[in-house]
Amino acid sequence: MTSSPMTSSAGSPRPNLVFRRLRGQLSPGEFAAAVRRAAREIGERVACDARYIGRVEAGEIRCPNYAYERVFLHLFPGRTLTDLGFAPRETVRGRGARADSGTPLACTTLSRANQYEHDAQQDPRPQGPPGSQNPWHIQSNEESDVLRRAFMTGGTAAVAASLGLTGPLGAEAVAAPRRVGGAEAKAVEEAVRKIRLLDDRHGADGLYKRAAGPLRTAYALLDAGTARQSTSDRLHTGAGELAITVGWLAHDSGRFNDARSHYAEALATARMAGDPALETHAFCNMSFLARDAGRPREAVRAAQAAQRSASGEGSARLLSLLALREAGAFAGLGDRAGCERALGRAQALFGRGACDADPEWMSFYNEAELEGLEAQCWSALGHWARAARHAQRAAHVATTKNPQFTRNIALYTAELADDLAHAGRPDEAAAAGERVLDLLDEVQSSRIQSILAATARVLLPHRRTPTVASFLERHTAVARSA
């Protein structure tokens, strides 16, 4: 009889080939991230990593402990441990296991200790600087979770209704067997449009958790299958765009690891469907996220990958935005020359104008956004006065041409306040900060609140100036009530 090295000093473990097949194309690290995420969904704490997955697949862990059992059964609903390639618990632990294998008690105790070793560790969680209360602090780099949302459970009817997304995106849509068709594909597309519009007007914080329900339902509909390939293609694209949209809500509200997971899910969907346009969008957002999360080299690679996948799209505006993503990444590296080259391409491409090939999701990319993203580049490079000029133009254009997009106006104005504060112009910075505070009744965005908090810290030495004192007092009151 072949036994595990954890229970006997002789013999070799039997590889768990079933579990390896279930991992599919995910790397051990990516799959471990999916396991940790599934654990958090059901309130468990497991410190799964690539090494643990390797031990399972090598057969060193013949049967997981109870915490991992609950997580695996949540991850693969409807299956048993034996369906996942594990040995029955009674053959591994306790009196029956010792009787069958002839393993001494001391060895069995050692086996149990080894199998529990990962649960004794703390679940790795992103941490900000000591004492930080800022949700926008850079989070650690967790492996991408690209496991399908079809494994996720939970009701979606109330969530869909709260967003006005009832009918084909309600929980009842997939509760009973039915043929998925054009109505469902259209509902997913409309969900994307509505969530993006709400984000433009009000920011991400109040939307993120509510939008996760329609996303789960969209992937469940996708898994249900369709009669026509054209409908399947629409559902793949719609579900991928919805994953990116929900990822952006997580990104803008400071949940970087969640955003990374959603973007990776969209990228996986794009590649499974052979959809280069969706792949471009996913890489575009992944570049932006990597820049914000302090991974500028990854941001450069993602922006360049997006430009390669977009080369056949025929949209100069799209290539302009992707060049700006690359410019922001180079700025994060402190590479002024690389940043300026990318900015030059972005401006030239933007000047070619809009066209029918421009993706629908790029509706936010206008002159104000061009100016705002360039302002971010110069601020990252420490050229505060130049950054302030571009932020000022961004806020002015947004206010005059797109007054309905309150969130964007607040963002550009917050960036202006921060740039002015660093440029040594405290009175102007405080006045811009006051304008942002006036908008916070309509906008909920951790990004904007974080920028304001940073501005307040820079202005603190000028607190005896009346305009600065007024801003700091109001900001403190708003922060306490948040």
From TrEMBL:
Region: Disordered, residue numbers: 116-138
Gene3D superfamilies tied to this protein: Tetratricopeptide repeat domain (1.25.40.10)
Name of the protein in its database record: Tetratricopeptide repeat protein
